[in-house]
Amino acid sequence: MNALLDASITDGWILWTLTALAIVAVIWLVVSRSWMASLVTAAISLAVALGSTLLIRWYVNSIWKPFADPIPDQVYVWISVAIFGLVAAIRRLTIGTGVTVRVLSVLTAAVVALAVAAHVNSHFGEYPTLRVALDLRDYPTVDLADIAHTSTVPLDQWRKPSDLPTGGSVGEAEIPGATSHFDARPAKVYLPPAYFAQPRPILPVLVLLAGQPGAPVDWLTGGQLVQTMDAYAASHNGLTPVVIMADATGSELANPLCMDSALGNVATYLTTDVAAWAARALQVDSDRTRWAVGGLSYGGTCALQLTTNFPLMYPTFIDMSGQIEPTLGSRQETVAAAFHGDSARFAAVNPADILRRERFPGVAGAFVVGADDHEYRTGLESIFSLAKSAGMDVRFSTVPGGHSFTVWSRGLRAQLPWLGARLGLDRQG
């Protein structure tokens, strides 16, 4: 059972088995004893699928605009396949007779829908396995309120005890927007094995931000954070940063641009409120040179925003597949919504503008992007050049793939040794 639950559903035999079953299902839904009836079913299904998909695409991209960037056309292709199967099933139900035909019509339509969902998930990689998709957690959880403060020692004086846990634990935290008044969703917090030692080493902090749409839990599902951190801890005496997966949007579809503006005081939340909560609730390093921020897509853009605007708070960052600038679709739309049309206020906090006019000799960062991410790669390369010219100690790397969790999970894993060294984890005695 574990082998099945942990098998990949983004590629491999499960995905292609579903695809084969969906092809058989579509053939069964379309083909009947009469070739004319089959032709009519195919024609009606195709016409409705294409028309509906074009209408949905127009509405989402031109009217609703829930995302700053358009949904990939590949996703709309799969949506049209789902609609085709649904229409064909409805027609099969109307012209067919008998309970068996009706049950098979419903089941085959469900198979097509499941295969479509699997392929859409394969594009983004948010649910890499059945275990993740079914929310069957395979990592320990902990109530943060039950973890008492204990004696601490500097990292370079700490020694690994013999009874240290083999893996970390994840807790959930309500981090109030006491100063920012930003209404954030609960954060997720990864505590490495070393956090449960007595005495406890003073550990660095990594704040991780999700994309848009997205939520903090995305780092535990598609981001595979626990697996990545546990693997690093296994070869570093149980040490990793304490990871705070904070909310930077407020809801799944919101886009407050990760700045203080008319859309919300997100920057203040991620600097002042998160830091204040960590000082109260956790025993972590208060030295800001031991703090880092990272994120994927919107979260990557946000990470660079925080570093360029608050370099003393976040002097280390990881920008994975971030945008060339925070956006709601265009510079004009963004400035209008966030700053009531005041472009100077936007330029004052926009990373690209800041990098052109200021120097950051004490800042270090990593830029990561999918090799096939044609939507974001050029912009990230441009921002990398600006960061380098502004005196940042930056690195740029590509990971096989597009704009997906496959890239982001691998990207974090690849950058963790550099990050650990930067945050002082290699100085443990």
UniProtKB/TrEMBL annotation:
<dbReference type="Pfam" id="PF00756">
    <property type="entry name" value="Esterase"/>
</dbReference>
<keyword id="KW-0812">Transmembrane</keyword>
<feature type="transmembrane region" description="Helical">
    <location>
        <begin position="12"/>
        <end position="31"/>
    </location>
</feature>
<protein>
    <submittedName>
        <fullName>Esterase</fullName>
    </submittedName>
</protein>
<dbReference type="InterPro" id="IPR050583">
    <property type="entry name" value="Mycobacterial_A85_antigen"/>
</dbReference>
<keyword id="KW-0472">Membrane</keyword>
<keyword id="KW-1133">Transmembrane helix</keyword>
<feature type="transmembrane region" description="Helical">
    <location>
        <begin position="75"/>
        <end position="94"/>
    </location>
</feature>
<dbReference type="InterPro" id="IPR000801">
    <property type="entry name" value="Esterase-like"/>
</dbReference>
<dbReference type="InterPro" id="IPR029058">
    <property type="entry name" value="AB_hydrolase_fold"/>
</dbReference>
<feature type="transmembrane region" description="Helical">
    <location>
        <begin position="38"/>
        <end position="60"/>
    </location>
</feature>
<feature type="transmembrane region" description="Helical">
    <location>
        <begin position="101"/>
        <end position="120"/>
    </location>
</feature>
<dbReference type="GO" id="GO:0016747">
    <property type="term" value="F:acyltransferase activity, transferring groups other than amino-acyl groups"/>
</dbReference>
